[in-house]
Write a structure and sequence with these properties.
The complex is a heterodimer of chains A (418) and B (399).
Chain A (H helix, E strand, L loop, with lengths): L1 E5 L4 E4 L3 H11 L5 E4 L22 H13 L4 E4 L2 E9 L2 E8 L13 H5 L3 E3 L8 E3 L1 E2 L11 E2 L6 H10 L12 E7 L1 E4 L3 E3 L16 E3 H8 L20 E8 L14 H15 L4 E6 L8 H9 L4 E5 L4 E5 L2 E8 L4 E7 L1 E6 L1 E3 H5 L6 E2 L5 E2 L6 E3 L9 H19 L2
Parallel strand pairs in A: 1-11, 2-3, 2-12, 3-4, 12-25, 14-21, 15-16, 15-21, 16-17
Antiparallel strand pairs in A: 5-6, 6-11, 7-8, 9-10, 13-22, 18-19, 19-20, 23-24
Helix pairs in contact in A: 1-2, 1-9, 5-6, 6-7
Chain B lengths: L6 H9 L13 H5 L11 H8 L3 H4 L3 H5 L5 H5 L6 H16 L3 H6 L6 H19 L7 H7 L15 H35 L10 H18 L11 H33 L12 H29 L7 H26 L2 H20 L8 H15 L11
Helix pairs in contact in B: 1-7, 3-7, 9-16, 11-16, 11-17, 12-17, 13-14, 14-15, 15-16
The chains are: A alpha/beta (418), B mainly alpha (399).
């Protein structure tokens, strides 16, 4: 099925996280037609997975919900989920973009009543929670998913499961015969807001990720701390469920490292400070050790740092953790303290790898017409109407992403009006 | 602390394989990855910042510089490509020149520019000796088959001391003697600096048997078994080359001692003991096994280094290659001379034997200034490490 549509001067926004949503809204609210697509079955991106986010420590529902509402109410914006760019042809002002759409197996009749999930016997690792818990093969991606519609992982569905899911739906919303489709869009400019993936900690072999449940990533902590997360908001050692009495934060896990991500991921220091707050709220006495090379707390975040560094139960050790030894109960992290010149072996109940941001375009293959730098970030070409924003452009926090996305919207509009 | 960076020193390190040293941002990954680094005195992070700041005096009094076996684990995991292993190698190269005596010769042996002189000195010395000895003629085939190279420097009637041996001793013993004197001077300076730097009082000193028994001998045992070398991860393959090479040197040392005993002492009473050893003689077997081990070992090290250089994990330096070339030359000419004796071509044989003498003399003469010096410096540093952690290594007590 090919669906020809488009408006001259329209803007395509690839990626529906905080950057893509901002770009789409800024452009549409001044009268431009906008298409926004996301490869996930929901919008909201990485921010949706956080427990709280900077600058005001809001839960993601706070910022995202208002954006979803603005999108719903704006007739200039057309949304596609489970969609990705297949090819791009033409030139600035007149791009022809082919979008591939994966089958959701649930049509628009869905009311998100949840009967299919209740009936479904098959379970999958919950991708939203980094596999820390299970969800049904027919599932709502997360509590505040937008569009609010279930999705089915057909590959995980047994024959009996397929029958059960189909029979459970009162609204005829389940359609297991859906096929992948493509649509063609004519747009003036393309904004890449494809965001980031957490760097794969398995690639950092000396940090032993995967060899002990006591080694987790910072994004896993976000999910655990979130009330809607796999542990209902409680930070525990996965597997054993033990309440950690000591926690080590391993900064620059894969960042500022030629063997992994060459650049500083910008957000991990602040994420660690934020997560120290989560831990303090739950475990006022827990020992916290932060192993770092340098601490990056830009601008007013310095106050935030000062507050956490004065915590009597928190130690900051200048030295990168270069080895993690798995113990029967927890792990030992090893670093040289560059200030005292001693090697530290710190036994802790849980180690948190502050993994960095890897631009997702680098992993997914480079689409036509996009130039990436050596690290996989988009190099914008404003003359050609190819614009990168948010974490597709550089590692950044939410504030910087929304700023760069407003700028991206303006640049995109300029191409449309040329 | 007032740091006066020694810019010439930094420049030297950069030129001697440590060109990456300024990339280090002190994350200390290296100190943790290093299998030889201890908890109390981790390295090489501190050496990296001393190098960046040109703190030569600290580095020249630091045993850790010599404890490094350059196994490359630090370089592999270095997030900045600062190659700490290479930087420490460059510091060692500097130290051998710095502690070397006479300094002119030490400097000459530190760069490829000195190569014509470095080869020229032994060539001239040995050639002149050959002229003086009056033995300078190429023997006929029968003579060559009977005596091999044992009358290279001719022969005389004085039966208590063979002319050939006289000349070889005249060349080699002063060469090695100079090396030993130079090493002794360098090592005592190093020891004193290390001791001062570690703040160890001079009030309690180990006796010679204590020193040998508690510090030196255990270090030698560690070296012989390659205990530390085997802990290396990245360049584990180097053990495969270094161990046979070391054993070959020991084997050849034994054969040399036996040959001296047999020809110069026992040969006095049983003249039939003179002449080349038959192939089935146990010492001849040891000699040939050692020679093959030497050639195999140096081949492995040669190819490992070429590979590391082509992969960009180590840089090409004269310091590293000069020793490899010298040992390769000793092995090839020594074994080559024997083969030529078997196939009986006197002129070529004498030429190759001449080159063999040249390369052996180079190995002896330049021992304290080239990478070869590590056998003495590393042993000393290992003994110092044990000394430092013993009861003798207590810091000066404030009066």
């Amino acid at each position: 099925m090919t669906d020809e549509q488009g408006t001259s001067g329209a803007i395509l926004v690839v990626g529906g996280g905080i950057s893509g949503l901002t770009t789409a809204l800024e452009a549409a609210e001044v009268g431009n037609d906008v298409f926004i697509i996301d490869k996930n079955p929901y919008f909201g991106g990485r921010v949706a997975q956080l427990n709280e986010y900077f600058p005001k420590m809001c839960p993601p529902s706070c910022g995202l919900e208002i954006n979803f509402k603005r999108i719903k109410n704006n007739r200039k914006i057309r949304t596609y989920t489970m969609a990705s760019v297949q090819s791009v042809s033409g030139g600035p002002g007149n791009y022809e973009v082919t979008i591939g759409i994966e089958p959701r197996y649930v049509n628009s009749n869905c009311t998100a009543c949840g009967d299919c999930a209740a009936a479904c016997p098959d379970e999958i690792d919950n991708p939203f929670n980094f596999g820390m818990d299970k969800c049904k093969a027919a599932f709502l991606p997360h509590e505040m998913a937008f569009p609010r519609r279930y999705v089915i992982d057909k590959s995980a569905l047994s024959t009996a499961g397929a029958e059960a899911v189909k029979d459970s739906c009162k609204y005829n919303a389940v359609d297991l015969d859906m096929k992948p489709t493509t649509i063609t869009l004519n747009v003036a400019s393309i904004v890449w807001a494809t965001g980031w993936n957490p760097y794969d900690p398995l690639k950092i072999d000396n940090l032993s990720y995967g060899k002990s449940p006591a080694i987790v990533t910072n994004m896993m902590i976000e999910r655990m701390a979130a009330p809607s997360g796999p542990t209902g908001g409680k930070i525990v050692v996965p597997g054993s469920g033990k309440e950690p009495e000591s926690i080590a934060f391993v900064q620059c896990a894969g960042s500022r490292d030629e063997n992994h991500l060459e650049y500083c991921s910008y957000i991990c220091c602040m994420a660690t400070f934020k997560q120290m707050n989560y831990i303090r709220e739950q475990y006022p006495e827990a020992k916290i050790y932060v192993f770092y090379i340098d601490l990056r707390t830009p601008g007013k975040y310095e106050k935030f740092r000062d507050k956490l560094m004065s915590d009597p139960n928190a130690s900051f050790i200048k030295g990168k953790v270069a080895d993690i030894v798995v113990e029967a109960d927890g792990v030992t992290v090893i670093a040289e303290n560059a200030v005292t010149g001693d090697k530290t072996h710190q036994k802790v109940d849980m180690a948190v790898l502050a993994t960095g941001m890897q631009p997702s375009l680098q992993e997914g293959g480079v689409p036509a017409g996009v130039t990436l730098d050596d690290n996989g970030f988009v190099i914008s070409d404003y003359d050609k109407g190819i614009i990168g924003t948010g974490c597709a452009k550089k590692a950044a926090d939410v504030v910087t992403c929304t700023q760069s996305s407003t700028a991206a919207a303006l640049k995109a509009i300029q191409v449309s009006r040329r | 602390m007032n740091v006066q960076p020694d810019l010439t020193f930094i420049k030297y390190l950069k030129g001697a394989g440590g060109d990456t040293l300024k990339k280090c941002y002190q994350c200390a990954t290296c100190s943790v990855r290093c299998p030889l680094s201890t908890d109390e005195k981790p390295f090489p992070r501190k050496e990296m910042i001393w190098s960046q700041w040109g703190m030569k005096d600290k580095l020249l009094a630091d045993p850790d510089v010599f404890l490094c076996h350059q196994c490359g684990d630090c370089t592999t995991y270095c997030p900045r490509g600062a190659k700490p292993g290479e930087v420490l190698g460059a510091i060692r190269a500097y130290a051998y020149t710095h502690f070397g005596w006479p300094s002119g010769l030490a400097k000459l042996a530190s760069s490829a520019k000195g190569l014509p002189m470095l080869i020229g000195i032994p060539v001239v010395v040995i050639f002149v000796m050959w002229l003086i000895s009056g033995g300078m003629h190429i023997p006929n085939k029968e003579h060559f088959a009977d005596h091999g190279y044992q009358q290279f420097f001719g022969t005389w009637d004085f039966k208590w001391y063979a002319k050939n041996i006289f000349f070889i001793v005249l060349i080699m013993v002063p060469s090695l003697g100079l090396a030993i004197v130079s090493l002794y001077m360098g090592l005592t300076r190093l020891w004193k600096q290390m001791k001062n730097n570690a703040d160890i009082s001079g009030n309690y000193r180990p006796s010679v048997p204590q020193f040998v028994g508690q510090f030196l001998w255990p270090s030698i045992v560690e070296i012989l078994t390659h205990k530390r070398f085997k802990e290396c991860g990245t360049n584990h393959d180097r053990t495969r080359g270094h161990l046979p090479l070391m054993l070959a040197f020991i084997g050849l040392f034994i054969v040399t001692c036996w040959s001296l005993l047999k020809n110069d002492i026992l040969g006095l009473f049983w003249p039939s003991l003179h002449g080349p050893l038959p192939l089935y003689d146990p010492f001849k077997i040891l000699a040939n096994v050692s020679a093959i081990a030497l050639l195999f070992g140096i081949y492995v090290l040669w190819s490992n280094r070429s590979k590391a250089e082509s992969e960009g994990t180590s840089s090409k330096t004269f310091y590293d290659w000069f020793l490899i070339w010298m040992i390769m030359a000793v092995g090839v000419t020594g074994f080559g001379a024997q083969i030529i004796r078997w196939i009986n071509i006197p002129s070529l044989g004498y030429f190759v034997y001449f080159l063999h003498l040249v390369s052996v003399m180079m190995l002896f003469l330049y021992l304290p200034y080239t990478k070869f010096a590590h056998i003495a410096y590393r042993t000393t540093a290992m003994a110092f490490e044990k000394f430092r952690s013993s009861a003798f290594g207590k810091p000066v007590i404030e009066q």
